[in-house]
Amino acid sequence: MVVNCVDKSNRLLYYQSMKCPTCKAEGQRFGTNRNGSQRFRCVQCKKTYSAPVTDRLPGSTIPLATVENVLQLLIEGCSVRSVERISGLHRDTMLKLLVAAGEKCEKLLGRLIVNVPVQDVSADEMWGFIFKKEKAMRSDDDPNYGDAYCFVAMENNTKLVLNFALGKRNQATTDIFIEGLRHATAHGRFQITTDGFRPYLSSIPNTLADRADFATLSKIYRATPEGERRYSPAEVVATEVVPVMGEPDPKRICTSHIERQNLTMRMQIRRLTRLTNGFSKKWENHWAALCLHFAYYNFCRIHRTLRVTPAMEAGISDHPWELLELLT
Ligand SMILES: [Zn+2]
Fold this sequence. Notes:
This protein has 328 residues and is of the alpha+beta class. It is built from 9 helices and 14 strands. A hairpin with a 5-residue loop joins β4 and β5 (48-50). The longest helix has 23 residues, at 255-277. The mean pLDDT is 82. Bound molecules: zinc ion. Zinc ion binds next to loops.
């Protein structure tokens, strides 16, 4: 039986209607109990009753306070091993929890980030890897191993992450990514800026021709010795802007803006790579970590310059969400 589920401060997170214990008729919601749980009233005998209260989500044996703690630590970039030591949960249990949370977040994003009116969108790909780096791949390895780029599209004004995709840096992943972006954005006209990655040049005109003006912005880096480049970002000596489709407004392809954006993303992803590198031996874990990360970023984290969450700025939500709200 599914029952009232409350968090540690007695807020009702989840409930399911329970039939009347005496006459087995349907109950209707009838206010809340002092402990925050839902109360019901029988439609026949008018008696009121409440369902048992638990602090566990349906199908889970882990107390919500632990779930919240573990996910928070993972989001903040703690390694799975360190979270294992802090929480006392076995890492396999944690990874199951992460995958379950990731699935919830994926559905949530798919449900709420649709037909969003946007003005300026920028897209980028961030490198990551699963199990081993591409150069260490052998012919008999799982094709999911190796490079796993995360494609991200963000609205520049609201900072809302509109869509993301995980895969090899190729045409197939780009097509899936841009198709998802179409699903996320509303009919109105917007401007999209990407880097000079070639697959965009066919994918965006094929999929977004009716709604987007499109320009690419490529950076030309100063040549530096390999060692130097690894520890500090390469110096940008020039940028090249190429209008590709429609009439992109040159003022809105401003480089400082994009660079700031890229920095934000890189910093987010640094956390993410810390979250994933240590244990992303499986595609599913990596994907779940991304879903949780972006759902948390859009709905829970207060953006420093906006002072609200990106979802609030975009008019999708009216309050900063608690982490557990993502799961219910
Ligand atoms: Zn009754």
